[in-house]
Write a structure and sequence with these properties.
alpha+beta, Ribosomal Protein S5, domain 2, Alpha-Beta Plaits, six-stranded mixed sheet, five-stranded mixed sheet, about 40% helix, galactose metabolism, nucleotide-binding, transferase
């Protein structure tokens, strides 16, 4: 069976696809074209909603939107996955039924858009892979609808995901989807919402970030992610802290065993992010790889958000010579990443695929992640 690599679309290809879908559906041309990327988090998982640190990159894989404002209050959505929706803009609210429209339309609600619009979406961001396809659609929608500042766009998209899609995420995905830059990771501190660009051009050093989509479907709104966030909040309250950013390993004996595990992950993961930033700046890639692997072990053992499919591909990546590997994203399925020499990718892909199939898991899909630019208007 051939291995599946998921390619990113060029601007030209994305524009052609979304324009064709829009014009076929609405019988006129879109007035605004925009795109926003998915993301891969290099390290710093389940830290954003704990006022912590993370280090994501924006993917070259993006969601494209074609949009034309309307003079009435009607909203029409169409996607390349065959889903369509129409209704009054007042129907986009926290009580609407759960569907992809919560992500596509949610930013209109949080940006206080009162007029209708026609919108078409196409995307090469894999769905359900833990690569922030939801943030990509939110951020593409928001920048097409509004000329608000980047900070306001991020805040609106976080609010849409939390209050319209009811996914209790912390904001990393939307931040990097808007503020990502080519050949740089975005070092984010959620205590003060500061951002710093860190050079991250792995190809210059003969390396790749290989993303492995396990095809074990992942959802942020299925309750498990929310349970972990609730456990962190419970630990914070028991310790009398304003956030787990203030926690240290010395606090662990004060907590029940389960909550101590969760806090240990958050504290040590923040430390790993700081070490990863230093390793990237000094091009110490063996050290960075070690940090990836330690992060996975913590997510597997202390935070308990990995799954057999993720553990399998991480182990197979390391057996294939990766400098390090870890699950990425919220967990319970989705994707892993491996820091690996470019010359070893073909062997790694074959071995990872063989190991997944030997365990009875779905055949993984793969993509090469290089740090790319954030959301942008392509035509207006």
């Amino acid at each position: 069976m051939s291995n599946t690599f998921i390619s990113a679309w060029t601007d030209t290809e994305g524009i052609k696809r979304v324009t064709n879908l829009f014009s076929t559906t609405f019988r006129h041309q879109p007035r605004i074209l925009a795109a926003a990327p998915g993301r891969v988090n290099l390290i710093g998982e389940h830290t954003d909603y704990n006022d912590g640190l993370c280090l994501p990159i924006a993917l070259p894989h993006r969601t494209f939107i074609g949009l034309t404002p309307r003079e009435d209050n009607r909203v029409y959505f169409i996607s390349d996955h065959g889903s369509a929706w129409e209704g009054d803009i007042s129907q986009i609210n926290p009580h609407m039924p759960a569907s992809w429209v919560n992500y596509a339309g949610g930013p209109a609600w949080s940006l206080n858009i009162t007029h209708g619009f026609d919108a078409a979406f196409v995307s090469c961001v894999p769905l359900g892979a833990g690569l922030s396809s939801s943030a990509a659609i939110e951020c593409a929608s928001a920048i097409a609808l509004s000329d608000a500042s980047k900070e306001e766009i991020v805040a609106a998209c976080i609010r849409a995901e939390n209050e319209i899609a009811h996914a209790p995420t912390g904001g990393m995905d939307q931040t990097v989807s808007v503020f990502g830059e080519a050949d740089h990771a975005v070092f984010i501190d959620f205590q003060d919402h500061s951002r710093e660009l860190v050079p991250a051009s792995f190809s210059e050093y003969g390396l790749d970030i290989l993303v492995i989509d396990t095809r074990a479907k992942h959802s942020l709104a299925d309750g498990q992610y929310g349970n972990r966030r609730a456990e962190c909040d419970q630990a914070r309250d028991l310790l009398g802290l304003s956030s787990l950013r203030q926690a240290t390993l010395d606090h662990l004996p004060q907590l029940p065993d389960l909550l101590a595990q969760r806090v240990r992950h958050v504290v040590t993961e923040n430390a790993r992010v700081l070490d990863a930033v230093s390793a990237l700046r000094s091009q110490d890639f063996p050290k960075l790889g070690q940090l990836f692997t330690r992060s996975h072990e913590s997510l597997q053992d202390d935070f308990e958000v990995s799954c057999p499919e993720l553990d399998c591909v991480v182990e197979a990546s390391l057996e294939s010579g990766a400098l390090g590997a870890r699950m990425t994203g919220g967990g319970f399925g989705g994707s892993a990443i491996a820091l690996i020499a470019t010359e070893h990718i073909d062997h790694a892909v074959s071995h990872i695929t063989a190991q997944a199939q030997a365990h009875g898991f779905p055949q993984p899909a793969f993509l090469r992640a290089h740090a790319s630019n954030g959301a942008t208007i392509l035509h207006q």
